[in-house]
Amino acid sequence: DADVTQTPRNRITKTGKRIMLECSQTKGHDRMYWYRQDPGLGLRLIYYSFDVKDINKGEISDGYSVSRQAQAKFSLSLESAIPNQTALYFCATSGVQGGEAFFGQGTRLTVV
Amino acid sequence: AQSVTQPDIHITVSEGASLELRCNYSYGATPYLFWYVQSPGQGLQLLLKYFSGDTLVQGIKGFEAEFKRSQSSFNLRKPSVHWSDAAEYFCAVGSTAGNNRKLIWGLGTSLAVNP
């Protein structure tokens, strides 16, 4: 089984719908991240969490919210999806400051 | 501010040729340095990392990278490219101190391999 699991892997949703992307990890890491990847723009950080009670906005948090339900679970929500949120979304974890990140397989989200 | 630059957006090489992907960074001290690879439809996989010590780092899949402090660079190399190396490559920098505890990413270099 993968160390970092994202569900769903693919999702098509309509404009205005609420959608949740889920991430779970078995690495025992405290730090979890949500990134968005768009062609030519690299990885952009949406939110990050260093423990269950520590949630921080990243570069592009507008239109997104997160929930850290447990050390192992970190969910990303789009309260009212819009087409320019169509992208590839990655969850990642890391164990130490500035250290290596471990990525999930990604969720390809299309908003129509 | 910390930043990472990958000057080459897209590179095409022939199979069997050597490869060098460039990465330059801006950081106030010696950072942690990483190279990741993303194959089509996949997540990012760590190729190699530099934390301290020997400035020439060996990674998986025959890749290596050299940290050059004077040039603020961490270029990725491979002596002979295989068709399966076609992918997106990302350089990243991690902080070694202070409150900035996130990885800073370059925009990536897309590698195509001609048969």
Give the percentage of residues in beta strands of chain A.
over 45%
DSSP, total strands of chain A? 11
Oligomerization state of this entry?
A: heterodimer
- Count of individual helical segments of chain A: 0
What does this structure look like?
The complex is a heterodimer of chains A (about 110) and B (about 120). By secondary structure, chain A is mostly beta strands. Chain A has strands spanning about 5, 10-15, 20-25, 30-40, 40-50, 55, 65-70, 75-80, 85-95, 100-105, 105-110. In chain A, strands 2, 4, 5, 6, 9, 10 and 11 form a 7-stranded mixed sheet that branches. A 4-stranded antiparallel sheet of chain A has the order 1-3-8-7, with no helix packed on it. In chain A, strand 7 (about 65-70) and strand 8 form a beta hairpin. Chain A starts with a strand and ends with a strand. Chain B is an all-beta fold. Helix content of chain B is about 0%, strand content about 50%. Chain B has strands at about 5, 10-15, 20, 25, 30-40, 45-50, 55-60, 65-70, 75-80, 85-95, 105, 110-115. In chain B, the strands form 3 sheets. In chain B, strands 2, 5, 6, 10, 11 and 12 form a 6-stranded mixed sheet that branches. A 4-stranded antiparallel sheet of chain B has the order 3-9-8-7, with no helix packed on it. Chain B has a two-stranded antiparallel ribbon with strand order 1-4. Chain B starts with a strand and ends with a strand.
Q: Could you name the key traits of this structure?
A:
heterodimer, A: 112 residues, mainly beta, 4-stranded antiparallel beta sheet, 0% helix, B: 115 residues, 6-stranded mixed beta sheet, 12 strands, 51% strand
Summary?
The complex is a heterodimer of chains A (112) and B (115). Chain A has 112 residues and is an all-beta fold.
